[in-house]
């Protein structure tokens, strides 16, 4: 589904990704694990069209997406939930979710998908008329994920959904990630928390200072933990 081949990404003179290659197959949960500053967010920003690779190729469903506009990447079926759960604080939960549907190609079934988001995240249903800025961190993470789902992605990019959340909330979020995957959405999950990430993923890549240093099935990598 996604084939990243030998990409180099720079911020000015700083090289954040150094010859990164990885693959995601349809139906998988793949995780990219690494310490703070390793280049995880940079990879997701590159896949979602916010950064351009200087070298290398990115193929998604058989076409090149390297350097394409973020909007056309969303339309092609890739949704990105950035780090730091950015929701529109002065809009309600429902309004944030509706905004997520704005860039989807197929406008049919929006009401049904909204229902589905509320089934996945019952807390959002309870708070649907509430200003999003008043939600807890975990609820804002749920909202950011729900908004991405409203774009009807084939591939969902999740940037550290567990960051700053209490263990119980992390468990909830990860079990919902599993459920979204079971319903047919492929997932690329970026995490510092290797233990949690390996517990939900099929395969994993480990990234250190801009390079992939290890890859394998989640089971294989768990044994090296
Ligand atoms: P991670 O997501 O793994 O924590 P990042 O992808 O955010 O890592 O960062 C990778 C490297 O690129 C780090 O050294 C970081 O400081 C640097 N970096 C990230 N964003 C910028 C930026 N806007 N300008 C310059 N350097 C950046
Ligand atoms: P995010 O990665 O979600 O954008 P961060 O808190 O990592 O959030 O970074 C906030 C902003 O600062 C981002 O625009 C990021 O690209 C930029 N940034 C991160 N690291 C550096 C760095 N070393 N030098 C310059 N800008 C950076």
Could you explain the architecture of this structure?
With 225 residues, the chain is of the alpha/beta class. 36% of the residues lie in helices and 28% in strands. The chain has helices at 40-47, 70-75, 93-100, 110-120, 122-126, 137-150, 167-182, 194-200, 218-224, and strands at residues 2-11, 14-24, 29-33, 55-60, 63-64, 78-81, 155-159, 186-191, 203-208, 211-217. The strands form two sheets. Strands 6-7-8-3-9-10 form a six-stranded mixed sheet, sandwiched between helices. It has a four-stranded antiparallel sheet with strand order 2-1-4-5, with helices on one face. α3 (93-100) packs parallel to α6 (137-150) and α8 runs antiparallel to α9. It is globular and about 45 Å long. 43% of the residues are buried.
Largest sheet: 6 strands, mixed
Secondary structure tally, helices: 9
| Span between termini | 28 Å
β-strand percent reads 25-35%
Strand order of the largest sheet: 6-7-8-3-9-10
Radius of gyration: 17 Å
Q: Give the helix level as a range of percent.
A: 25-40%
**Which small molecules are bound?**
adenosine-5'-diphosphate
Structure at a glance:
The protein has 9 helices and 10 strands.
